[in-house]
Amino acid sequence: MAKSSEESPSRRTFMMVVIGLISTVIGIALAVPILGAVLNPLFRKRDIVWTKLGKISDLNLKPLTPKFVPVYFRVKEGWSVNTLPRQVVVVKQVNGDLLFFSNQCTHLGCPLHWIAARQKFLCPCHGGMFNATGQVVGGPPPRPLYQWVHKFGKDKDTVYIQNKFKDNPKDRGI
Amino acid sequence: MFKQIQNWFDERIGLTKVIEEFNGERIPRRGGWAYTLGSLLAFLFTVQVVTGIFLLFYYVPYFPIARNATYFLKHHVVFGNILLGIHLWGAFTMIFVILIHMARVYFSGAYKKPREMQWIAGMVLFSVVVVLGLTGYMLVGNENSWWTINVLTNVASHTPFIGGFIREIARGGTETSVLTMQHIFAVHVWLLPIVVIMFIPIHLFLIRKTGHQGMALEYKNSKISEDDEKRWLKPDGTVPFFPDQFYKDMIVSLVVFAVIYILAVYVGAPIGPMYRPLALNFAPEADWYFLANEEILKYFPGHGLIIFSTFLIPSIGFGILFLLPFIDRTKERSPFKRPAATVLGILFLLLLVYLTLIGGEPKAPATV
Ligand code: HEM
Ligand code: FES
Predict the structure, then answer these.
(1) Where in or outside the cell (chain B) (predicted)?
(2) Which strand (E) or helix (H) includes residue B99?
(3) pLDDT class for B362, splitting at 50, 70, 90?
(4) Domains of chain B, residue spans
(5) From A167, B222, B228, B294, which residue has the greatest number of CB atoms within 10 Å?
(6) Which residues contact B234 (CB under 8 A, 6 or more apart)?
(7) Residues B298, B309: Cα–Cα separation, whole Å
(8) Residue A92 C-alpha from the chain's centroid
(9) What atom of ligand 1 comes closest to residue B321's alpha carbon?
(10) ipTM
(11) For the domain with range B37-216+229-276, which CATH number is right: 1.10.287.370, 1.20.810.10, 3.55.50.30, 1.10.1740.10?
């Protein structure tokens, strides 16, 4: 018969080591699939798609007067394909160049309101303010408005938008 | 008959003795009403679990459907409005009561040696209860839920080094999606409640191990000086937990439950409009207990400072509170004998109230 822990100190040490090892093995074995489930998003590639915004000539843009145009991205998310409705804020600059902003505040992502009387985008959450060219003019936002990645079609009039922001290394927002 | 059943159990496991030991715990006698807050929290949490389980008979954690399922529960299920109302107002009450309980413990210095671990276990409960509130707010699937998810995951993304990962893990991807809702759901109905269910017994076990300290007024007759730890070992008078303290616990629970019930029936749980990511004129609002934090977010402009409002101030504040027993190591317990701690506590509470009151006001008007 094996000795009890009370009879032999080394037997006691041995049992404690075995108990510790068993706990560690079971713990690690369980942690692996759990970490997999939790960290899974980090290993997924983002589904990037193009979607049509429409023809610029149809928008009747006036200089420095933003137009909010909804777009609908069809993207794979987890187990489903979903429609992500998003706003594209099209602004024609004085020199005629076009800007395609997101209406998300660059602070923490609230939806911006265009206040025509003040010629500014105001954020209802913490008072962020942007001018018509997307520069921060007040409040806490740390950077200018996000710009959607976009391209023109063959007719140089139809615009396509990607569900991705320019100059956004950390993939913030969206 | 009853006697026989009792004997059956006693012969086997000595049940009567276990119950008597539990019920006989000595509680300091002068401040009984102030000590009902902890039991009240345990009661409120039980109510949350019970109502929550039956909300699940109808709720669907899927963005376009969640809000309508909640609407159905409220308007088409018999007494569904009461069930949902209790769950909402119970949650609000719990957060409010937990703050009062903390204040009671703080001002009576009950977190000091040997009760440091009680405070730590309490802080775990506090953090979990607040996150339960926030995740519950997100589950409704209305406009505020949608923007709260976006804003809070963005706040988390400013954590140094791992912020981006935290946001992506919480959302289940870069965007707020079906997976986001599923994660929040699992956290709200399983993960966090289980943490609470584990930590309430730990909290209570610790309190029973050291005995209740109660407030300084329990030790008025003691001859030992204020800064001697021994003074705080033996209250002048005690009563048994059952029925003396339990009776007060029940009365307070009933009054608070009645208030919750009336609010549930007559005010109910507002459901609000369906979420609209395209909204052009929507002003998101946080729940009241988050407004103080929300106010801090309005300051610290620009890239270099944003980390103060999103990470440093909240986490340092939380860290100080968490480690309070190890920061304040003085021995006096009476609020009058430790004026610095008392004044700081009062100032902190006033600041919290002030930030909450102005936190609800947008800093710039949404429409001019
Ligand atoms: C779900 C949340 C909580 C429950 C159910 C709970 C429950 C209780 C109960 C039943 C008591 C004994 C009676 C009383 O003084 O009320 C107690 C005491 C205590 N609680 Fe909590 N509590 C909770 C949260 C907290 C929090 C957030 C803290 C502080 C961070 C805390 C710190 C303490 C301390 C230090 C005591 C000992 C007081 C003394 O000995 O006089 N508790 N708690
Ligand atoms: S989200 Fe716009 S200012 Fe904070």
Answers:
(1) Membrane
(2) helix B80-107
(3) low
(4) 37-216+229-276
(5) B294
(6) B219, B222
(7) 8
(8) 26
(9) 30
(10) 0.90
(11) 1.20.810.10
- pLDDT of A173 reads 64
Rounded Cα gap, residues B54 and B35, in angstroms: 31
Q: B145: helix, coil or strand?
A: helix
DSSP per-residue string spanning chain A: -PPPTTT-HHHHHHHHHHHHHHHHHHHHHHHHHHHHHHHHHHHSPP---EEEEEEGGGG---BT--EEEEEEEEEEETTEEEEEEEEEEEEE-TTS-EEEEESB-TTT-PBPEEEGGGTEEE-TTT--EEETTS-EEESS--SPPPBEEEEE-TTSSEEEEEEEESS-TT----
Q: Does B178 touch chain A (CB under 8 A)?
A: yes
SS3 B287: coil
- C-alpha distances (whole Å) from A130 to each of A114, A137, A145 are 9, 5, 8
Q: Which residue from B107, B98, B125 is spatially nearest to B31, judged by alpha carbons? A: B107
Distance CA B168, CA B172 (A): 6
Instruction: Record the tokens describing residue A51, joined without a space.
Output: 């979607």
The single-letter code of the amino acid at B327 is I
Closest alpha carbon within chain A to B280? A113
Which residues is B174 bridged to in the sheet?
none
Asked if B297 and A108 come within 8 Å (Cβ–Cβ), the reply is: yes
Residue B142 DSSP one-character state? B
Contact (CB, 8 A) for A62 and A39: no
pLDDT in tens, A55-65: 999 999 999 99
- Torsion angle, CA of B167/B195/B202/B197, rounded to 10 degrees? 160
CA distance B149 to B176: 8
Q: Which helix (H) or strand (E) holds B28?
A: strand B26-28
- Give pLDDT tens digits for A41-57: 899 888 899 999 999 99
- Residue contact A78–B280, C-beta within 8 A: no
Determine whether the shortest distance from the Cβ of A126 to ligand 2 is under 6 A. yes
**Peptide bond between residue B243 and the one before it cis (omega within 30 degrees of 0):** yes
Give the 3-state secondary structure of residue B264. helix
Closest Cα partner for B120 from B135, B105, B132, B108?
A: B105
Contact A14, B145 (CB under 8 A): no
Q: Is the CB of B34 under 6 A from ligand 1?
A: no
Candidate from A38, A85, A136 with C-beta closest to B278: A85
Whole-model pTM? Answer: 0.94
CA proximity to B245, closest of B36, B98, B20: B36
Query: Distance (Å) from the C-alpha of residue B131 to the closest C-alpha of chain A?
Result: 18
In whole angstroms, what is the distance from residue B104 CA to residue B126 CA? 14
| Protein residue with least CA distance to atom 7, ligand 1 | B38
The residues, ordered by sequence, that sit 6+ positions from B204 with a Cβ below 8 Å of its Cβ are B42
